[in-house]
Specification:
about 180 residues; about 0% strand
Length: about 180
């Protein structure tokens, strides 16, 4: 009788262990297939939109990389998109710095042009100045480059022209007073 009980327990143990092993192996296999299926779906999704990662507009590429580095499930894919995002973000930063330096140069040239106009107003001589036309050409070139960068960065200009209208400029007296105050300081 003791042998029969032992045999029953061994048979039950084999059955339980066999069932557990089969269940565990099938679970691991199913999990592997699900991971592979998710990876395939991610690759297909990224493949549909990869053309956006190749665009010249750095702002579009930045948003695209930011999106995929956030939503992808696969750690491997996410790491690659994080690296790409870092690369695009540095390029975006360089463009912003370039735009800012161009805008500063533009403002400086504009102030210089205003000084020249003020000086010509005081002399009352109406002669075309080669410096003024050269300055205007430089202003136009800077304006075009800033607009190209704005387009690439997807910055919408509120005013189509960067040139300030004369109505917004200070009067000659206000400008002269400001220069005198600066020279005293």
């Amino acid at each position: 009788m003791e042998n029969e009980k032992l045999k029953l327990w061994l048979d039950f143990g084999k059955f339980f262990l066999g069932t557990f092993l089969i269940g565990f192996v099938s679970l691991v296999i199913k999990w592997g297939f699900q991971d592979r299926e998710i990876a395939i779906k991610e690759s297909q999704q990224v493949g549909e939109y990869v053309e956006y990662a190749l665009l010249e507009d750095v702002a579009v590429r930045k948003r695209f990389a930011e999106y995929f580095k956030t939503v992808l499930v696969s750690d491997d894919h996410r790491e690659r998109w994080e690296k790409y995002f870092t690369l695009v973000e540095s390029e975006y930063g360089e463009k912003v710095e370039r735009r800012d330096s161009l805008m500063q140069l533009y403002e400086n040239l504009l102030a210089l042009e205003f000084q020249n106009e003020s000086a010509m107003d005081t002399t009352m001589v109406e002669m075309p100045s080669p410096v003024a036309s050269d300055s205007r050409l430089q202003l136009e070139k800077i304006q075009q480059e800033v607009q190209a960068i704005d387009s690439e960065l997807r910055i919408k200009a509120t005013d189509k022209s960067l040139v300030k209208k004369k109505a917004n400029r200070p009067s000659q007296q206000e400008f002269t007073d400001t220069l005198q105050m600066q020279s005293f300081n």
